[in-house]
Backbone:
DNA sequence: AGCCGTTACATGACACATCAACTTCGTTTG
DNA sequence: CAAACGAAGTTGATGTGTCATGTAACGGCT
């Protein structure tokens, strides 16, 4: 079926790329969950919170930054709030708005999780490739990303 | 935060790769859903059914082939059965087993969906890259995949 | 002041995925 | 042959994502 649509080189690239992502994602997610009890979604939110001053984001701004839908982020924050990783604070000056704020526990969690995650990224991908390959992968990614963001809608995605 | 762990080239590769996948996946899933009403999961199952003679798979074999857990596949098949895309048939000779069989409706659905999906793959990725880049992507993918499958467990993934 | 469109966020229903049982049947093996 | 083990699938609880919709508040305009 596929043979009629993609030639050998194309299909090899497509399959390899896809399989790489699948395996990498599940491996990293598994390691993260095992070592820290965090999901990738948790990690994404926490790592973005810890990077900014005040360790807080307005919901919409964060959603846009990590390219999630507002709804998705809202649900995620609700769950994280229940686990004490973040809290919501009503925004002064705009009674509609809210801040997501990192808690002590959230800070501890992300501090612990970061080495785990990034060493996984290294071990399972970065360190396997040459500098040229890394540059090439960067190029490829940017080409595709640029094409897909030419005017398209933002959210509706699945990760960062 | 990240800066301490990955240098510029590495981080660029990592981010671009990740963003590429996210955007590509959501774009393809969106187009597929819009044009055909199928999800990526549906597509994966259907496209594997249509390729084999008899248009049928034993559940475990299919699950292994597409690297899903049995449970995941079972749930998915249940939902697809409700929509008339596939049916289950008890296996002769092994009273535990069952076949998933493509229905007429399922065949129609996949026949319609395949051009949509593969043209999307082409437009949003394959045709944007040079032959060299495709080969390089294939190489990269295979390196990472090989590393991750050295002995690791099978399922626990998220797609095909 | 009153209306109106927009913004910020929440929520409920449903699709999807995972894990941990659990059933049922097949296959060894003592 | 019976007990034990393993294989094939199912099921239910739970977590996570999406879409459509809801609610409140803001801001401009008349």
Residues:
């Amino acid at each position: 079926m596929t043979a009629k649509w993609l030639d050998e080189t194309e299909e090899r690239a497509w399959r390899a790329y896809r399989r790489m992502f699948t395996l990498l994602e599940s491996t990293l997610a598994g390691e993260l969950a095992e070592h820290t009890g965090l999901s990738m979604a948790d990690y994404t939110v926490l790592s973005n919170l810890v990077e900014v001053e005040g360790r807080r984001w307005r919901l919409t701004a964060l959603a846009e930054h990590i390219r999630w839908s507002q709804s998705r982020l809202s649900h995620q924050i609700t769950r994280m709030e229940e686990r004490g990783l973040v809290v919501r604070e009503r925004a002064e000056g705009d009674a509609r708005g809210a801040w997501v704020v990192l808690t002590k526990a959230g800070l501890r969690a992300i501090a612990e999780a970061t080495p785990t995650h990034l060493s996984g990224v290294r071990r399972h991908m970065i360190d396997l490739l040459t500098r040229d390959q890394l540059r090439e992968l960067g190029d490829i990614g940017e080409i595709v990303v640029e094409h897909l963001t030419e005017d398209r809608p933002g959210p509706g995605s699945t990760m960062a």
Q: What stands out?
A: The radius of gyration of chain B is 19 Å. Helices of chain B lie at 8-36, 40-50, 59-65, 70-82, 104-124, 131-148.
